[in-house]
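To: structure desk
From: M.T.
Subject: fold request, one chain
Message: Could you run this one when you get a chance? Sequence is below, nothing fancy, just the single chain.
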Amino acid sequence: MWFGKEKASINITTIISPSCQHCRKVVFELLTLIEKGIDFRWNIMLGKIMNEDSQKIEMWVQEYISDKNKFLKSLHLWSNERTRCLHYSLNSVNQDIRVSEICYDFEYKMKKLNVLGFPQIVLNDRLLSTIYTAKDLEFIIADLSQ
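Reply: Done. Structure tokens follow.
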């Protein structure tokens, strides 16, 4: 799942979970960068903290496949601290093979990256140290773009 410029020189991947409050803040910061017009590709990988996250992940993937722009609006709502949960317009996930493949791909890549917690930020294929936050990305991108 991705947003922004497809072939951008800056790739930011966020590894987030639907039930993670810290992940909401990361998503909010990335959405702010998009709104500022900063040139990058934002990839999203979804992982689960709790068992019920699996259904939410499937619903998010389905919404992304169905309408990428609508899903982006849903992320805006979800990342807003005043919104307690993301309400879905989909009652259930269609048993679309693409949804299953994408969810499996998330799990495979997280195991390969040895992701142990959320959120994680990967910048151009390098896991960002936890000393950096999503707010630092604007300045990091500016440095890399020069």
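Reply (cont.): DSSP finds five helices and five strands in the chain. Let me know if you need anything else for the meeting.
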